Amino acid sequence: MLSRLDVINDMITSTGAVALNTEQARHPLYQKAERKLTRVNSAVQAMGLYFNTETRDLLADTTGEIVVPQNCLRADPVDRKFNLTLRGRRMWDLDKATYNIGGTRRLKMSFELPFPEVPPVCQEFIAAKAVYEFYRDEDGADPKLREYKSSMAQAWQMLWREHTRNRQVNIYDNPNNMVNRLRTNPSAHSRR
Fold first, then answer.
1. The model's pTM
2. Interatomic CA distance for residues 136 and 110, integer angstroms
3. Which member of 81, 148, 157, 160 has the lowest number of beta carbons within 10 Å of its beta carbon?
4. Mind spelling out the 3-state secondary structure of 70-133?
């Protein structure tokens, strides 16, 4: 498990500077690295990966507006007949051009988790992407830049593999696949 300081030190040392022993909010490189890590962490988690995406029923408040939790990055209606999008912290009806939605809507939402709560495979990708972008922004040059980019690509492959495995997108592994349903409950399908 990586800590934020571990990643920030990887970012700082990529430029040839000395690593920090503790979080030093006044250190200029620490400030740059901390901002970059925060942005990368949010951007990666906004993709809606297996560990931070949930389906929830949200009830409209007394004004008819649906307000999502503070750490929600994305919210999409599960029922696509509702043309809703997230604006700020409220859901917006694109067809009626209003925040007044009324009722309960089931939403698929992605949340931003604190860095220590993110699974290790995603922490590795966030770290690799943050180091690459930090080094690039500090006018880093090849061949080191290519190495950081390659490291980021490998971390992305590992994360995507884990995401795919957890989402069960393979038709043969997915429990909703008819073949698997018949295999587990043959009486569900009778010959005519």
1. 0.80
2. 29
3. 81
4. CCEEEEEECCCCCCEEEECCEEEECCCCECECCCEEEEEEEECCCHHHCCHHHHHHHHHHHHHH
Taking a C-beta distance cutoff of 8 angstroms, is the pair 101, 64 a contact? yes
The answer to whether the CB of 84 falls within 8 A of the CB of 77 is yes
* DSSP-assigned beta bridge partners for residue 56: 107
The pair of structure tokens assigned to 48 is 């809606």
pLDDT 10s per residue in the chain (192 long)? 889 999 999 999 999 888 888 888 889 999 999 999 999 999 999 999 999 999 999 999 999 999 999 999 999 999 989 999 999 999 999 999 999 998 899 999 999 999 999 999 999 999 999 999 999 999 888 899 999 999 999 999 999 999 988 887 666 655 555 555 566 665 655 554
- Single-letter code of the amino acid located at 138: E
Give the span between the Cα atoms of 155 and 51, in whole angstroms.
Answer: 16
All residues at 6 or more sequence positions from 37 whose CB lies less than 8 Å from its CB, including other chains: 4, 7, 8, 11, 115, 126, 130
Dist CA 30 CA 169 (whole Å): 40
Rg, Å, the chain Cα set: 22
Please name the amino acid found at residue 58. L
